[in-house]
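ARCHIVE CARD
Drawer: 12
Card no.: 0347
Subject: one protein chain, sequence and derived structure
Cross-reference: see card 0346
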Amino acid sequence: MSNSDSVKQTIVPPFFPRARWFTYAAVVVAIVSFGVTGDLAARDAPESFADLTEKLSPAVVNISTSQTVAGTSAPIPDLPPGSPFEDLFRDFMDPDKKGRRGRRVSSLGSGFVIDPSGIVVTNNHVIAEADEIKVRLSDGTSLDAEILGKDPKTDIAVLKVKSDKPLPFVPFGSSDKARVGDWVLAIGNPFGLGGSVSAGIISARNRDIQSGPYDDFIQTDAAINRGNSGGPLFNLQGQVIGVNTAIISPSGGSIGIGFSIPSALVEPVVKQLRDFGETRRGWIGVRIQTVTEEIAESVGLEKPSGAIVVEVTEDGPAEAAGLEQNDIILTFDGKDVPEMRELPRMVAATEIGKTVRIEVFRDSKIIQKTIKVGRLEEAEKVAAVSEDDEPEDEDRDAKESLGLTLSSLSRSVRNRYDLDDDIRGVLITDVDPESSAAAKGIREGDVIVEVGQKEVKDPDDVIERVNDIVASKKKSVLLLLNRNGNLTFIAVKAAES
């Protein structure tokens, strides 16, 4: 994947007059077969996007930034002492010389006005690290901009410009109502050429491109090109339903896969940045993981859904509400959690201080909990680990189960594997390369904290728990592993015990 600032424009004709009779025939068939009403005509592509473009373009702006980057010194030739060229080379190649401490670089992007007073929305990466930001309006007017706030997690920034007159602006629309197949317009400033429009459809919804914790992108084939970053994605009602951000492009050219941040995610962030200059997201103090089919089967959940709790933050809202490690959060504030990545967005969008009800799957039962939402902290706290017993100083005999060679955490073992004293569990000293455990990525040095949602302290505990699970006819054994201080659930085949 590459940023939208490294793409070439691809133009695809949206309309073919000679094929119009095919369109009419298709509409007739749809009406007869599926009972399509007049709503179809409302969603049909217009003959031209000219009127809509003329209305919207004045609110779309070009954003140019400049910054000073540190200079790098070139090697100075080895010259004879006293050479007349010595001072010359030092003056031109030494960045520490006066006047050569750095160089100015500039970049281009797009944005759009959402308030006639001069509030502009763009991407954070467009203005990140900039010393100077200028907003150029469609009539050529250039205005200095100040940053009201920025949010790297969603790649959104809000700027403020001062103008003698109210500025043209565009409203946000509902990205939640947008459907795959709907027409959209992308307006921006590709290649620094000036305002440019591309049309396409919504290709997919809810895309996760691994760019941040709240990924929920709209995918579109409307060309998003160099300089389009931060520009708006419009529906046919002239409302902003997305902010153009990134593309996937193996070659660097447009292949019709662009991504926009949905307005449902952008609007609350913009409001917080305007009001507070920073985001204020909800937080409940848990670290979570995806519930896979193996995990669901091993804990007795009918189907994989929700988010399994890996860690509960000490003194956080979840701990106060009685949530525990291994709990699977199924609903939050009356809404289902179909998959793990939905929960962070739900929590982040919740008002700080609000008390919400959640449903948790624990010990094959669904229980109700209420939790008071706190404010998200920038740095996660490390969950406290109880210290029950001091480890012995001598290694115990190694034992095997699930294709794993197991050892107790003695003093010598801790020193050998550089394990902190607060880590508790059973060390894995070897993994059978043909085992299910190896296929799932388990490796030497991992520490088994729990087997089947119960703590283990030595290899005998692991073997006993695995035998119990096998006897219960379950297909998978759920392990909670500690790897370099991070906890993660992995399910392995029980048959290999």
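Annotation on reverse: The chain has three domains: 1-29+50-279, 282-375, 399-496. The two ends are 42 Å apart (CA to CA).
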